[in-house]
């Protein structure tokens, strides 16, 4: 029977950290394995081919904010936070976890709970409820917590969430351990590892969210000269050309429809149709989006593509 491994993040260089993560399914990957979110192929590509997401401003922002939110949360809730670790399950060798932190009752004491830290923007606020309510934590985060509890053998997991734009302290959610679901989840992970990693069966590529990174990792440079398109490639090229033309036509038509509706709505607050409220109102440089649930007004950038998604209400872009 394999032994549990727990290695502090500070003891691993970045390359070693990434190498460890390729030896099993991590907590941030389990939701894709279970089909709760897209990206199953991305998990496969990261493990087999070492494909990593390109570093960008959003990822860097998340890394920097995580440290600040953790300290903020610890002060507000009087928590003793231990540093992040990489860990492997004691009896399921391909089930791993890299919690954002661990909680102890005293400084530098033994862990009694795990910690995940989340920075949530207005576009994702609707997925989170009030602490203590049923289904208050999104399923993808719940299974991440279950994975951490299984690997670390801890009874509970805390989630510290900073909701952008609300002007409040981080909110604490608590996820309890669920042994029955945990056992089924681990069984699914081990079966997935055997089928896709050991036997080499690729998951459906349509689930990929980072196919460009996968292609770049597989074929980093040209090694063959220009050639004629194959018989298999020709129908793909023809369909792509047709799809590109249709996409442009649809985009132009949608733009025209939006403009027509905005002109028709005029100076009204909005219109109601098919059980939805539709608006295009702007105030100065900000758009007002009214939340039916709380009756609050949230200011978001005027650019329509950044409008806040409100249940039951659509904003014309």
TrEMBL record:
Coiled-coil parts of chain: none
Domain YqaJ viral recombinase: 16-151
Pfam families attached to this UniProt entry: YqaJ (PF09588)
Gene3D superfamilies per record: 3.90.320.10
InterPro entries in UniProt: PDDEXK-like_dom_sf, Restrct_endonuc-II-like, YqaJ_viral_recombinase
Identification of the protein by name: YqaJ viral recombinase domain-containing protein
Organism: marine sediment metagenome
